[in-house]
Amino acid sequence: MAESYPAVDEAHEERPRRRRGRRVLIVLLVLLLVLGGLVVVADRVAVGVAERMVADQVNRELTQRNVTFASPDVTVGGFPFLTQVVDGRYDSIRIVLRDVETPVAEKATTVSVPEATIDAEGVNAALDTLRSGQGDITADTVRGTLTVTYESVVALIDEPGVQLREEEGKLVVTAPVQVPLINQRITVRGNAKLTPQGDDILISFSGLTSPDLPDNPLVRTFVNGFAEDLSVRVPLPALPFPVEVTEIVPRSTGLAISGTARNVALNEVR
């Protein structure tokens, strides 16, 4: 009787099959990784194109309004980006403007803003709208923050010796004033009132006082008039998207101004 070795034959047959199976699986995994990488690259390229388009639009709009600034930094949030394009809804768009200068013709000076940040969240822009340029592009919420330097405000006040600074969360002014009634130069001090008025900030002063100020009604009237002369309207630089000022806070570096708006038409000309 001839001897047979089935177990050995089966083992020899299974090993190549398993190796081929493993090789196929490895190839598939490599292909998936390569394709995934290509998708990620394509997604990031598309984001870069979108960010450049927004930056170009911001450049055009603000240049038309005589605002000078460094090239804007634009960041389109959310991942993946291409699915947002298809859905027509983007998580967020952030625009950062630096070294913003707005001319004030009547004062022959400028309002300086070292940095302004605009965040648009929940941006709705259908693909057909982007292709044709027709239709609405809206944002659920737009928030803007910027800081106006005290040097800009002092230049607008245009009174020699005026100084502004933050003390305990308040805007404090000190200014020398020549009081003709007593023929004496006195340095007065007081707090400012900050009031948003449309696209401007009204800075008004009252109750200026000094230890050297005599208790004289005529002198007091004169100083009150001087305080009114110090009051100034500060025009805020134009932003790419409209926001309404909601808060003005004195900081060590200047007036920190923030605003917000809801259901904003981003492609509406201001």
TrEMBL record:
This is DUF2993 domain-containing protein. It comes from Plantactinospora sonchi. The chain crosses the membrane at residues 24-42. InterPro entries: DUF2993. Pfam families: LmeA. Keywords: Membrane, Transmembrane, Transmembrane helix. It comes from the Bacteria.
